[in-house]
Automatic annotation (TrEMBL):
<feature type="transmembrane region" description="Helical">
    <location>
        <begin position="176"/>
        <end position="195"/>
    </location>
</feature>
<keyword id="KW-0813">Transport</keyword>
<feature type="domain" description="ABC transporter">
    <location>
        <begin position="398"/>
        <end position="633"/>
    </location>
</feature>
<dbReference type="InterPro" id="IPR003439">
    <property type="entry name" value="ABC_transporter-like_ATP-bd"/>
</dbReference>
<dbReference type="Pfam" id="PF00005">
    <property type="entry name" value="ABC_tran"/>
</dbReference>
<feature type="domain" description="ABC transmembrane type-1">
    <location>
        <begin position="37"/>
        <end position="320"/>
    </location>
</feature>
<feature type="transmembrane region" description="Helical">
    <location>
        <begin position="148"/>
        <end position="170"/>
    </location>
</feature>
<keyword id="KW-0472">Membrane</keyword>
<feature type="transmembrane region" description="Helical">
    <location>
        <begin position="36"/>
        <end position="57"/>
    </location>
</feature>
<keyword id="KW-1003">Cell membrane</keyword>
<dbReference type="GO" id="GO:0005886">
    <property type="term" value="C:plasma membrane"/>
</dbReference>
<keyword id="KW-0812">Transmembrane</keyword>
<dbReference type="GO" id="GO:0015421">
    <property type="term" value="F:ABC-type oligopeptide transporter activity"/>
</dbReference>
<dbReference type="InterPro" id="IPR017871">
    <property type="entry name" value="ABC_transporter-like_CS"/>
</dbReference>
<protein>
    <submittedName>
        <fullName>ATP-binding cassette, subfamily B</fullName>
    </submittedName>
</protein>
<dbReference type="GO" id="GO:0005524">
    <property type="term" value="F:ATP binding"/>
</dbReference>
<dbReference type="InterPro" id="IPR003593">
    <property type="entry name" value="AAA+_ATPase"/>
</dbReference>
Length: 639
C-alpha cells in the first residue's frame, strides 16, 4: 500500500499538567473577560428564573388544596410564569451568543497560533509530523477544545449553580428528604473518577487513529496517478478500510466508558427519586410537609438529576478537550532546531536570542521560539547591512562540514563528512552517486536543518549567528520536485516578487524556455495550474520553478537536479538562459547529466557524503574513474 512517509506522532505518555494547559487558555479568558462576565451573569439569571418555577407550582397546588384559589389569583401566577419563561428565553439567547461566541473566537485564535507556529518550524519537525497529523490537530483537536470551553464550561457552571441552589431549596423544604435524595450521589462521583482517566487515554488513541486516516487519505490523493498506473486501487481501499476499522475500534473503546457513565448517572438520579416518592409521600400523609412542598421538592430533584447526568457529559467533554489541548500543547511546545521564528515587524532577525536552545536526546529544550531575534537599538539595519554586504561580495565557506539527519534510519550515520570548500561567484556543478549527499548540501545551505557551529559561514559569519530567514533570503532554491500553488502561472512565477510587472515575468519565462508554452495555453499567463501544478507537464513545472528563481534575483541560485525532466536540447536552452542572468552570483547545479556539467566552471564530486574531487569537467573526464564511468554510460545511452 502507499503508506505514510512518516508515522503521525504517537500519543505521548507524558501528559502536561493541568496548570500548563490552563496557562495556554488564560490569555483568551483575560482578553474576553467582559464578554464572559456578561455571559455568565445571563446564565446565572436563567438559573435563578428556573428555580422560581417550582415555587409558583407550590403556591398553585397549595391554594388549590386549601380551596383559597380564585381565577384572578391563578391568572396572576400564570402571568408570572409567562414572564419568567420570556425572560429565560431572552437570557438564554444572550449567554449562548456571548459564551459560545467566545469559544469560537478562542478556537480561531488558537488555530491561527498553531498555524503560525507550524510555519516557523524547520524541516525535521515536518519529518516527524506529516500533514495528515497536523490536519487532525487543526480540525478534530481544536473542535474538541472549542466544545470543552464552550458547551462544556457552560454545562459545568450551569450544573454547579442549579444543583447548589436546588439543594439549598430542598434543604429548606425538608432536610430529611434532601438527605434521602443525595444518598446515592457518591456512587456517581466514584464512577466518574474511576472512568475519566480511562477516557483520556482512549480518546488520545482515537485522535491518533484519526491522524493516521487523514494522512493515508492525503497520501493516496497525492499519489493517485501512481496508484492508478499500478492498479493498486483495491489494495489502497482495503488498507483504508483497515484504518477505518481501527478508528471505529478506538471510538468503541471510548463509547464503552461513556456508555457506563451515562447509565450510572441516570441510575443514581432515579434511585434518589424512588426514595423521595416513598419517604416524601409518607411526610405528606403525616402532614409534615404540604402537597405543594412535595411537588416543588420533586421538581427540584428533577433539577438535580440533570446536573448529575451532566457530570458524565461534562467529564467526557472536558476529558476530550484536555486530551486535545495536550496534543496541541505538544505541537506548540516543539521547537525549531534552527531557533527560527517569523520575524515580527521592526524586529531584527539577525542576532540569536539570549537563551539559545539546548539539545537533550535530540529534542530542543528552552524558551518557546515566539520571540524573534533582536539586537537592541539596531532595528532592521543590521539585516539590510548584511544583505548588502553579501550581495556585493557573496562568499560561502564550508569548513569540515559534518552532518547527520536527526531521524536517519541508521542512528549516527553521517550523510556528509568533512566537506571543506569556498563557494564564490561562478557555476559549480555537483555530481555523485545517488544518496551521496548532493541534496543534503543544498538543504544545509538553505538552512533546512541545523549545522554545528564553525562549519558553515556566509560572508565569513557563522550561520548559527544569523537568523535562518536572513540566509534563506540570499538564496533562490529550486528543489528536485518543484512545488506549485494552485493559482495562475503568473502568480506562481512571481511568488518571491509579488509586485513584478508582466514584462519582468515574461522576461524570466523566456530565459527559462517557458514563454512559448505559456502563450499557447488558453489563458496565457493567467492560466490556472491546478492542484500542485496538475495541469502542467513535469518539464513545464521545472521551467516554471527556474523562472521563479530567476525573478527572485538573489545572490545564490541552487538548482537541485531540477532540469532532469527536460530533453537535452531544452536543458541547454534553459542553461543558457540561467547563465545570462547569473553574473556575479554563486550558482550550484546538482545534476547527473554530463552535458550540463560540462558547462559549469567546476564540478564537486561527492561519494558517500565525502568530497572526492573539485575539478573542471575536462579534468575529471581524464582522471576520475567514477566520472569516466558515468560519461561512458551516458554516451552509450546516447548511441
Ligand atoms: N530527511 C531525511 N532523513 C533521514 N535521512 C535522510 C533524509 N534525506 C536524506 N537522507 C539520507 O542522507 C543520505 C544523502 O541523501 P541525499 O538526498 O543528500 O542524496 P543525493 O546525493 O541527493 O541523492 P539523489 O541523487 O538520489 O537525489 C542518504 O543516505 C539518505 O538516505
Amino acid at each position: 500500500m502507499i503508506s505514510q512517509e512518516s508515522e503521525p506522532s504517537e500519543p505521548s505518555q507524558n501528559k502536561p499538567s493541568l496548570a500548563v494547559l490552563l496557562a495556554l487558555l488564560k490569555p483568551f479568558y483575560f482578553q474576553y473577560r467582559y464578554r464572559l462576565l456578561f455571559g455568565f451573569l445571563a446564565l446565572l439569571a436563567v438559573d435563578f428564573l428556573q428555580l422560581t418555577i417550582p415555587l409558583y407550582l407550590k403556591q398553585t397546588v397549595d391554594i388549590l388544596k386549601n380551596g383559597t384559589a380564585t381565577s384572578r389569583e391563578l391568572l396572576r401566577i400564570g402571568g408570572f410564569l409567562l414572564l419568567t419563561a420570556a425572560g429565560i428565553m431572552a437570557l438564554r439567547f444572550t449567554w449562548r451568543v456571548l459564551i459560545i461566541g467566545f469559544s469560537r473566537r478562542m478556537e480561531a485564535h488558537l488555530r491561527a497560533r498553531l498555524f503560525a507556529h507550524v510555519l516557523a518550524m524547520d524541516k525535521s519537525f515536518f519529518d516527524q509530523h506529516p500533514p495528515g497529523d497536523l490536519m487532525a490537530h487543526a480540525s478534530n483537536d481544536l473542535s474538541a477544545v472549542q466544545m470543552a470551553v464552550g458547551m462544556g464550561m457552560v454545562a459545568a457552571a450551569d450544573a454547579l449553580v442549579i444543583s447548589g441552589a436546588a439543594l439549598v431549596l430542598m434543604l429548606y423544604i425538608s432536610p430529611f428528604l434532601t438527605l434521602m435524595a443525595v444518598l446515592p450521589l457518591p456512587l456517581l462521583g466514584l464512577s466518574a473518577w474511576f472512568l475519566s482517566d480511562r477516557l483520556h487515554t482512549r480518546f488520545d488513541q482515537v485522535q491518533h487513529s484519526f491522524g493516521l486516516i487523514t494522512e493515508f487519505a492525503r497520501n493516496s490523493m497525492v499519489a493517485i496517478r501512481l496508484i492508478k498506473s499500478y492498479t493498486r486501487e483495491q489494495q489502497q481501499a482495503r488498507a483504508f478500510g483497515e484504518l477505518g476499522e481501527n478508528y471505529v475500534a478506538a471510538n468503541l473503546k471510548v463509547a464503552v466508558v461513556q456508555g457506563l457513565l451515562f447509565p450510572v448517572a441516570i441510575l443514581v438520579g432515579n434511585l434518589g427519586m424512588l426514595l423521595i416518592l416513598y419517604y416524601g409521600g409518607k411526610l405528606v400523609i403525616k402532614e409534615a410537609i404540604t402537597l405543594g412542598d412535595f411537588v416543588a421538592f420533586v421538581h427540584y430533584l428533577y433539577m438535580l438529576i440533570w446536573p448529575m447526568m451532566a457530570v458524565g457529559w461534562v467529564t467526557n467533554i472536558a476529558q476530550r478537550g484536555f486530551t486535545s489541548l495536550a496534543r496541541i500543547h505538544r505541537l506548540l511546545a516543539a521547537r525549531s532546531r534552527l531557533e527560527n521564528s517569523l520575524p515580527a515587524v521592526g524586529a531584527n532577525p539577525c542576532v540569536r536570542p539570549e537563551h539559545p536552545l539546548q539539545y537533550i536526546n535530540g529534542q530542543a529544550q528552552g524558551p518557546a521560539p515566539t520571540v524573534p531575534y533582536r539586537k537592541k537599538g539596531v532595528g532592521g539595519e543590521y539585516y539590510k547591512e548584511f544583505s548588502a554586504r553579501f550581495r556585493s561580495d557573496p562568499v560561502i565557506s564550508l569548513r569540515a562540514l559534518n552532518f547527520s539527519y536527526p531521524h536517519h534510519h541508521k542512528a549516527g550515520a553521517s550523510s556528509l563528512t568533512g566537506i571543506s570548500l569556498d563557494l564564490r561567484p561562478g557555476i559549480l556543478g555537483i555530481a555523485g552517486r545517488t544518496g551521496s549527499g548532493k541534496s543534503t548540501v543544498c538543504r544545509l545551505l538553505t538552512r533546512q536543518y541545523p549545522v554545528s557551529e564553525g562549519m558553515l559561514f556566509f560572508a565569513n559569519q557563522d550561520v548559527n549567528s544569523l537568523a535562518p530567514a536572513l540566509i534563506r533570503e540570499q538564496i533562490s532554491y529550486v528543489s528536485q520536485n518543484p512545488v506549485l500553488f494552485s493559482s495562475t502561472i503568473a502568480e506562481n512565477i512571481s511568488l518571491a516578487v509579488p509586485d513584478a510587472s508582466q514584462e519582468e515575468i515574461e522576461a524570466v519565462a523566456k530565459l527559462a524556455g517557458l514563454h512559448a508554452d505559456i502563450i499557447n495555453m488558453e489563458n496565457g499567463y493567467q492560466t490556472r495550474v491546478g492542484e500542485r501544478g496538475l495541469r502542467l507537464s513535469g518539464g513545464q513545472k521545472q521551467r516554471l520553478a527556474i523562472a521563479r528563481a530567476l525573478l527572485a534575483d538573489r545572490p545564490v541560485l541552487i538548482i537541485d537536479d531540477a532540469l532532469s525532466a527536460l530533453d537535452v536540447e531544452t536543458e541547454q536552452q534553459v542553461f543558457a538562459g540561467i547563465r545570462a542572468r547569473v553574473t556575479g552570483k554563486i550558482v550550484l547545479i546538482v545534476s547527473h547529466r554530463l552535458k550540463l556539467l560540462s558547462g559549469t566552471d567546476q564540478v564537486l564530486l561527492l561519494d558517500q557524503g565525502k568530497a572526492v574531487a573539485l575539478e573542471h569537467h575536462e579534468h575529471l573526464l581524464l582522471h576520475n574513474d567514477f566520472y569516466q564511468a558515468m560519461a561512458e554510460k551516458q554516451q552509450g545511452r546516447g548511441r
